[in-house]
Amino acid sequence: MSVEVSWFSALCDDDYRYLGVHDPDLKSSWAHCSSITTTADRLGYDSILLPSGYQLGIDSVAFAGGIAPITEQIRLLVAVRCGELWVPQLARQLATLDQMLGGRLSINVISSDIPGETMASEPRYQRTRETMMVLRQLLNGESVAMQGEFLNLEIDPPNARTVSGNSPLFYFGGLSEPARDVAAECSDVFLMWPGTLPEVDSILTDMRRRAADYNRTLKYGYRVHVIVRETENAAIDASRELISKLDAAEGERIRAQSLDSTSVGVRAQGMLREGADADGFAEENLWTGIGRARSGCGAAIVGDPDQVLKKLKQYMDLGIEAFILSGYPHEEECDLFARYVLPELEHGVLS
User: Fold this and answer.
1) SS3 for 290?
2) Vertex 204, ends 199 and 205: CA angle to 5°?
3) With 50 as the cut, is the pLDDT of residue 315 above it?
4) Could you list the residue range(s) of the whole structural domain that residue 221 is in?
C-alpha cells in the first residue's frame, strides 16, 4: 500500500531545539523555512505543509510563490484561511501557484477565526463551506452563481488556470459537528491530529459514514510529530531533552496564542495529554509531551526505526493514506526520518 509522506515547514514560528526556548536561528523567516523546504525536496518527501497563522510567522501564499521555482519534485500543501482573501482573487493566486509548480499544488483549507474577528462555530463553518464550493468551481474553470450567507456573486472563472485544468486536492480537518459535516461534503482529504489507535478508528468510521451520506469517498491524513533514533532509549532521551528547559507558563502562553486554541480539536489534544501515563505516553510509542508547548498537533511517535515504522503501518491499516510529519528542530528531524524510515515506506502523492 502506497502512502503520501509529507514534511512540515515551520512558517508559524514553531521550531525549537528546546521547546519553549526561542532560538533566533530557528525563527520563522524566508531563510529558515526555505531551507527546511528544499531539504525535504532533496530528501524525497512527497509534499510539504506550508502552515498559516497571522501573528505567528510569515505568509504561506507569498512563501509558496517564492519557493516554487527553486523546488524540483515536492508538492506544496499551502494553507489558506477562509475569509482572509476574497475567493475569486484566491482562486487566481492558487492557479498561478499551480502553474509555477507545474501542477505540484494542494490546498490546506483552514476554518479558524481570522485576525480581528471572533465568529461562532456554525456561521464560520458555513463561510468555509461556501468558500470551498466556490473555490473548487473557479479552479475547475467553471462559472459561479452563489447566493449564500457570506458569498453572493455571479462570476466567470479567472483566465489563470491550473496545469490540469481542475482544482487541486483540498485537505481539511476538524472534529466539531459542523467541521465534520463540511469535511464530508467539501474536502478531498480529511486530516486528523494525533490520537490513540481506537480514537483514530472511531473518527474514520464516523467520517466514512458522513461522506457516504453525500455520496462521496474521502481520503484520510494524519498529522503527527516524530522522534526517531537508532535505539528506543536514544529516542526517549531525545524527547526528554526536548522539554528539559520548558517553563510551564511559557508553554501555556504558546498554546494560547493560536487563533484556534479553543477549538474542539485542540481540546481533544489536551484530553489526550491528560490521559497519558506518567512519562507522557498515551499509548505505545505515542508521546504527548510536545503538547505542553503547542496548540494543535500535540503528540509525537517516539522510537527506533522499526517502532516508528510499525506505528505508521498501524495507522495505515486503519485507512490512513497520508502523513504530515514534523520534528524538532524540523530540518534535523527531517533528515533523520528520511534516513531511518522513509526508504521503508512505499510512498507517492495522493491524486
Assistant:
1) helix
2) 100
3) yes
4) 4-225+319-344
